[in-house]
Amino acid sequence: MLALIGRRFVYALITLWVVSVVVFSAVEMLPGDACQAFLGQMAQGKRLENCRAEHNLSAPAYVRYKDWAVGLAQGDLGKSIKRSKPLEEVIGPRFRNTIILGLTAALIGIPLAIVLGAIAALYRDRKADLWISSVAIFCMTVPEFITGTLLISLFSVWLGWFPGIVIMRADAPLLEVLSKIILPVMTLTLVMVAHIMRMVRTSMIDVLASDFVQMGQLKGLPRLRLVVMHALPNALLPAINLIALNIAWLIGGVLVVEVVFNYPGIGRLSVNAISDRDFPLVQAIALLMASIYVALNLIADLLSLLLNPKLRTQSLQS
Fold first, then answer.
1. How confident is the model at residue 16 (pLDDT cuts 50, 70, 90)?
2. Beta strands, E only, the chain
3. CA distance 234 to 290
4. Residue of 186, 3, 46, 58 whose CA lies nearest to 112
5. How does the average pLDDT of the chain come out, rounded?
6. What is the pLDDT of residue 316?
7. Contacts of 149 by beta carbon, 8 Å cutoff, 6+ apart
8. CATH H-level superfamily of 99-276
């Protein structure tokens, strides 16, 4: 088992190395010059040469990648060209805000999706199932930026209940952040609940039709106990990967939602970094997002192996 976990961990490291090469190459192909964008009208002569020398932009690409990769291995993300600060200081507060937004949406969305999926399965093809499934399909097909715009129109413009645009400092206290992210959280939660709920519903229907559930019914087990204690845990096993993937999807969804609501997180920072041609910052954000995605997939993979003996046996045999 330890060898299997070690193998998955090695695969994850190889994936991150490939991602780092892709990220660096993609940023290299972006048009424009970082120092010219930073210096503006003063981008000439000695100033331009000093800027390029300071940020090692005159060196060949493979040398800069090697230096960047060595710095990453030592925990050094580099320095922002536009902001003249270590990237850890630039990214830190914004990353905290993104985690707060994503974690809040996950803590609300995942339990809600499981409950709605179980209800839809228990009342299959009846009104409750039809209503829940219809709303879920609608939420799945509408992009996040449209959902966010609709929520702003309804709850901010028409009803005036919540602010449509988030206005706060990047290092605002936690309570201030939570008080201003109601609409962004609703946007993320709607889409996430729809995907997870559909998976839980399908899995729950299969489990309810299984032999051990029917045997429990014949033995006279209370329906609530049979569903909560036996059917639901087995139905959640196939949904673990999807839940982890949806949490990973939150990273991408958060970036879009942050731009729509002007939320001071990683998504908004990445847009500003691209427009500023702050290439070290763009690289750091892209690699950070990819690392989170790979880590969540690795966790989901390991949880599936630990909780499902059949998958563990198949992996050991392969």
1. confident
2. none
3. 31
4. 186
5. 77
6. 45
7. 260
8. MetI-like (1.10.3720.10)
